[in-house]
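In the previous chapter we treated chains in isolation. Here, by contrast, the input contains four separate entities that must be folded as one system, with a combined length of 686 residues.
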Amino acid sequence: MARDKDITIYDIATQLGVSPSTVSRALKNTNAVGNATRKKILATARELGYQTNTFASNLRKQRSNTLGVMVHELRSNFITSVLSGIENVAAETNYDLIIAHSSENAKKERANANNLFHKRVDGLIASLASDTSNLHHFKSFVDKSLPVVFFDRVFEQDLGAKVIINNFKAGYDATQHLIRQGCERIAHITSSLNRNVYSERLRGYKAALADNGIAFDERMVIVDGLAEEHAAYSAKRILKLSPLPDGIFITNDFCAAVVMQVLKDAGIHIPEDMAIVGFNNDAISKVISPKLTTIDYPGYEMGQIAARQIISHLKGTSNINTTNTIILHSELIIRESSLKQIS
Amino acid sequence: MARDKDITIYDIATQLGVSPSTVSRALKNTNAVGNATRKKILATARELGYQTNTFASNLRKQRSNTLGVMVHELRSNFITSVLSGIENVAAETNYDLIIAHSSENAKKERANANNLFHKRVDGLIASLASDTSNLHHFKSFVDKSLPVVFFDRVFEQDLGAKVIINNFKAGYDATQHLIRQGCERIAHITSSLNRNVYSERLRGYKAALADNGIAFDERMVIVDGLAEEHAAYSAKRILKLSPLPDGIFITNDFCAAVVMQVLKDAGIHIPEDMAIVGFNNDAISKVISPKLTTIDYPGYEMGQIAARQIISHLKGTSNINTTNTIILHSELIIRESSLKQIS
DNA sequence: AAAAATAATGCAATCGGTTGCACTGTAAAT
DNA sequence: ATTTACAGTGCAACCGATTGCATTATTTTT
């Protein structure tokens, strides 16, 4: 059986002897259509299985009903949670999503921004790649008054709305906790300090040391990637420190898990010899031994909030430029990997 | 500065004194345009910053240049790898992606299929929810001759092309390995047997037992969800078996990690008391103690291949209906969690 | 009862790219 | 030298929904 053509508003109009304009108006909730007519139209639309042709509609309306999402990496527990949150809100509000990832590459990020712009997304949600050094590539969005919301990795002083956590406080809390457990030589494994998330955590780490009269030693800070191979290498660098640290604050749970594995293989006892604090509260933190103390980072909520921000801006309910930065609650979750003392 | 309107082919046409049709033809690689004209047009297009309006183009061409992707869950390491593979190929070939997830819910899956159909995607890549019982909701795609490729979770005998691994063999290999390690009472923790991936692995498990003269005992098979809470519960059920099993084949690495955690907390030694084999070769399998023996499942490649299948079908290079099923290589990766004997 | 306001609908242009058909001019074939 | 072919280009009709403006019918106001 040959496939029939799709049903259009013209088909409905012809069948009912009304004009396409009336059908169009009836299918939305414009009140400029008589009640009887509207009912007939809606009934016929359902009966014929009418579906809006979004291309025609978008073309005419000059908007896409689509949000662009740019992430620095797809294969990450945290990012997946955020995406899931965004998707949840987008689905509810009938927005579509185009997802692009930069693989931590500024060049690809620029290409993606460009691409999404030309795909005419109505708004953008983004987390920056590790080597992005400015926001020039988002300028076209700003010029066109398209809302942009950054999450997690942002430029705190630059354009766009932001949804973040207090990374300074998180870093401070993690370090303070290690100090309270009796650690005196605390190392810090982190990633590109160009990114606020890492530089702020470092700042918190330093502040906690200072507040406790511990001298900062830059050899104790290891900056590298967070993927498996980098993590293993960082762990080896830890093992070469002399004297060995008695605590490590690591800005990523997966990285912490790999580091712990290497340390354990080297005969180091955790937490007795070295206490560990991770970051993110990924599922992995509960299935490694010892269980990982970490900072709970509400990714799903972050996604939902970023999406809601954008969408309520688009619907005119609120203006994204007035509430510029939203800080979500994050907190230290204490598990075995850092418990030297039973308090 | 007020934003200028977007550049259209009409702007280019006017500027050069040619017709829009010629511009349109020049911008694609139709050979029906003179060489000099084409060059001028391309130069002007670049200079003015012209970008195709995809809505207009899609509307006219009646296709979207977009692939729909339906997954049963977003927050999964395996799925993320697949998505990453799909994205990689889609980006190369200039296809967009719309990603929808069913949260393991057949009803939502049906809604998603419907939605993607009406968004007029050019093709569909899908993995089934755990309680999906038929493929009726994909019929509209078939009727419209839109290609559908299923991956991972498929109906092996039903419509559509499939990209899968040999789950029977994987199950057989995992079980055979445990038997070779001296296990005699092997439990199996798995999920919905309506899904080929789980039923086939179970079949492999049974076949290996049979081939080694071990009687199948259905109390040794635990069917439940694979998320954290279900996994913990399954572990408790294992602990209630009497006699205790001396080996477990678990169809998911994360689930295996949780189970191991619970077993270890209960004082069971792995692999001495109980050997464990997981499934997927997620990153997690290498950072838990002991490291997890598992089946390597090439998610990224699976995504790439599914996407390539669809796209080459769409481009007319190959017909998806002729190569109906593609089976990817998977293999047992032996680590500490199952090594009872140093062989 | 006449005038004014309002509700319900239609007309037709518009969004921007694509493509079948027709036309022109030059090159190739006879 | 004539016919034939074809490369290069333009015309105009689409694709389907939206919306400002005009028109008609109906209700309200005075």
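Residues 6, 8-10, 20-21, 23-25, 27-28, 52-61 of chain B lie near DNA strand C (CB under 10 Å from a C1'). Chain B has twelve helices and twelve strands. Compare these points with the single-chain example from earlier in the chapter.
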